[in-house]
Amino acid sequence: MTFSQNLHMLLSHTKAMRKQWARKVAALATITTLALSSPFSAYADSTPSPAPESPRTTFEQYRVDRENYLIAVKQRSAMIRNINIAFKNACDKATSEFKSAMLVARTPDQKNAAVTARKNAISAAIIARDTSIAALGAEPVAPIEPLKPMKISGKNKSR
To answer: How far, CA to CA in Å, does 108 sit from each of 52, 54, 99, 115, 122?
Structure first.
């Protein structure tokens, strides 16, 4: 670029930016003045509500909620693990009983009865597992992380 083009960009763009910035500051000052002098502040309660003993910031509250969420998830996982262990034990028991019944069975009716007994035992175990997991309720909901405050910089960092 030539010198005149660079000079034009520097002078005209910065003037326009300064005007725009000045308008924003003036608008912010006007809004702040109106908000502070509003009639709603004059009708405040004469008895202030008691302040909480330890006010928490949003980030501190998020950390507490996150800890509680992680504890609830661990407890739920442990309960589901125990339910699945009981389910596996029931299925293993049904399979071992089926194998022992098949060793003794001689007729097709006895073999069909052993197969039916195994299917019924596994179906009962599946129903018991599903109802136990449903009885735990919904999964815990993760807390939403609060937005971090935006930093206001005085310089234009796009250059």
So the answer is: 76, 75, 15, 10, 21
Domain segments of the chain: what residues?
75-145
The phi and psi torsions of 151 (rounded to 5 degrees) equal -90, 135
pTM above 0.85, yes or no: no
Q: How far apart are CA 13 and CA 18, in angstroms?
A: 9
* Stated length of the chain: 159
Q: CA gyration radius for the chain?
A: 36
Tokens coding 65? 């909620």
Q: In this structure, what DSSP letter does residue 37 have?
A: T
Q: CA-based diameter of the chain, in Å?
A: 105
Query: What's the CA angle centered on 69, arms 57 and 63, to 5 degrees?
Result: 25
Residue 129: DSSP 8-state = H
What's the pLDDT tens digit per position in 45-103?
A: 555 555 555 567 888 899 999 999 999 999 999 999 999 999 999 999 999 999 999 99
Round to the nearest angstrom and report the end-to-end CA distance of the chain.
16
